[in-house]
Structures are given as C-alpha cells and as structure tokens.
UniProtKB/TrEMBL annotation:
InterPro entries: Acyl_CoA_acyltransferase, GNAT_dom. Residues 47-198 form the N-acetyltransferase domain. It holds the Pfam family Acetyltransf_1. Coiled coil: none annotated. It comes from Streptomyces prasinosporus. This is GNAT family N-acetyltransferase. It comes from the Bacteria.
Length: 198
C-alpha cells in the first residue's frame, strides 16, 4: 500500500545543461523583431509582478521552485543589489522576462528567461535573450560596488521549451556541464487551470 513517501512517487530523468559566455564579444545578438516590442527594466521590486511573470512563463514547463515563496521572501530576493528583472513588452503587454543575479567575482547568472506561451514563436525570445545578456555584461554599471562582469552563465533543462537550447547557442553561449538527475514527476501547474491550450 502506498504511504505517500518519495519512494511511491513517479520520477523522470531530467537533463540539465549549463552554458556560459566569458567575454562580451561572445554575444551574437538576434535581429530585433518587427512591431512595437520593447524591453524595460522593472526597477521597483514588486513581488506581485515578479510572481505573475514566473507563474505565467513557467507554468507550462513546470517551474515550481518559487511557487511556495512568501511575499516577504520575494521582496527580499528582488531587493538585493545586482538582481534585475528585464521585461519584454509587445504593444504594451508583458510578453516575457529575464532575471539577472550578480554573484561572486564578476559572475552574473541568467536565473530565469522565457516568454508567456502566447508570445512564443514570434522572434521575441532571441531579442529578449540578446538584450538580457547584454544587460548582464554591463550590470556593474548600474550597481556601485558590484564587480564588472567577467562571465555570464545559465542553465536549461529537458523540461524547458523545445527551442531553448538552440536559442542559447545561437546567442553565443557554450556548454560547460551536463547532469542527469531523477526528479519527482509533477503536474504542469500553469498560472491557473485551463490557461494553456492543448
């Protein structure tokens, strides 16, 4: 009889790839998409807005690690020096975002990157990743006391969108590590039931 323990859960093998750039010249920018697409920094720490972006972008690809965060934890994270959220807008509507985090010794991680499902496949992602990566390289210019960037890195996994790895490589990111781990299989949370068309 199942007792609800981890051993009773179904697991899936998840491959995680880590990629990096080690010089600003590594960045290979994508073409700017047609239309009124803008990328703007969200300068006021807003747990409500950041949680909306996180749940809306990651809901169909099983981003779950921050869903249980409290308001206070979101605010503490967003208010840290060197943490930035850059949001792509298509005709004034949020289309996706990039979250940057300054780490030790001039390292900046692209912690989250993605588009809301309705904006995928419209060439916004390549532009947003290009713009966000460029902001990772010049992050220290906006944060006194943060060391100049010497390395930008990120990770993606087999649960992410099917075009994620290709987009990263086309922007000049190079693979430096691969790991495969078993994870509990979780339902796609979505921002709310029925938000994603089948």
């Amino acid at each position: 009889m199942a007792d609800g323990s981890l051993s009773d859960m179904t697991t899936i093998a998840v491959t995680t790839w880590s990629l990096e750039q080690t010089a600003p010249t590594d960045l290979l920018p994508a073409a700017v998409p047609e239309g009124d697409v803008r990328v703007v920094r969200s300068e006021v720490p807003s747990p409500e807005f950041s949680r909306f972006l996180y749940a809306s972008v990651g809901g169909d690809i099983r981003w779950t690690d921050r869903l249980g965060w409290t308001y206070a934890r979101w605010l503490e994270h967003l208010d840290r020096p060197g943490v930035e959220t850059w949001v792509a807008y298509d005709r004034g509507t949020p289309a996706g975002y990039v979250e940057l985090e300054s780490q030790d010794d001039g390292v900046v991680e692209i912690v989250y990157f993605g588009l809301l499902p309705g904006f995928r496949g419209r060439r916004i992602g390549g532009h947003l990743l290009s713009y966000g990566t460029a902001r990772a390289w010049d992050l220290a210019e906006r944060w006194p006391g943060v060391k100049p960037t010497t390395r930008v890195w990120l990770h993606t996994c087999s649960k992410d969108g099917e075009h994620a790895m290709d987009n990263y490589r086309r922007r000049g990111f190079r693979l430096f590590d691969t790991k495969v781990e078993e994870e509990p299989e979780a339902a796609t949370p979505g921002p709310w039931p029925g938000a994603f068309p089948a």
